[in-house]
Write a sequence for this structure.
């Protein structure tokens, strides 16, 4: 009897996976009413478009990519996350759109957005966070045309344009940086420019 029940559960799991439809993450997901749905996040969500996956209390809400994959899978959708995103930011439709960044983004053009980052109040609301304590963060330091990047662990939470400490896991030293995107920060002259603003 037990093996029959386990077999039936396994068959249902396989059948559910077989009916999962592939979806594509929208390039700049937004919502208009504070209720974030799968349709706000994904193109091709179909019947699952109205499934609510979060409530936005502030101007934005941040989802972990793995969390989104799980929520999509529960509703029969298959998001492969082909670009290796770590987080997805969903903004109010009235706010400026944000672009989710790949975990591997490290091109030299990444330094330009650092200048445009907006400072935030010292204590950011959870929905505004783009970096949370213990997140792995890529820190870029650029001076004289030379660009260096290291990956470290965030010592605190930060919204876009906020200062935070990043611990270099190899040296154990703490780096003073400024958050510019999910999993991305700058140090050195670019961080000083942002802090001066």
């Amino acid at each position: 009897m037990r093996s029959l029940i386990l077999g039936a559960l396994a068959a249902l799991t396989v059948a559910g996976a077989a009916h999962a439809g592939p979806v594509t993450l929208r390039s700049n997901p937004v919502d208009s009413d504070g209720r974030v749905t799968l349709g706000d996040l994904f193109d091709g969500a179909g019947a699952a478009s109205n499934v609510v996956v979060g409530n936005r209390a502030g101007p934005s809400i941040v989802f972990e990519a793995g969390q989104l994959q799980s929520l999509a899978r529960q509703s029969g959708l298959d998001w492969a996350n082909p670009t290796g995103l770590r987080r997805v930011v969903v903004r109010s439709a009235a706010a400026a759109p944000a672009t989710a960044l790949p975990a591997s983004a490290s091109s030299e053009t990444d330094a330009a957005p650092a200048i445009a980052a907006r400072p935030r109040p010292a204590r950011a609301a959870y929905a505004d966070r783009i970096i949370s304590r213990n997140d792995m963060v890529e820190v870029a330091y650029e001076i004289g045309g030379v660009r260096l990047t290291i990956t470290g662990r965030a010592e605190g939470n930060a919204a876009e344009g906020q200062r935070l400490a990043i611990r270099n896991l190899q040296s154990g030293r703490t780096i003073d940086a400024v958050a510019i995107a999910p999993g991305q920060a700058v140090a050195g002259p670019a961080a000083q420019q942002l802090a001066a603003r």
Observations:
- The chain is about 25% helix and 35% strand.
- The CA atoms of residues 2 and 8 lie 10 Å apart.
- The longest helix spans residues 2-18.
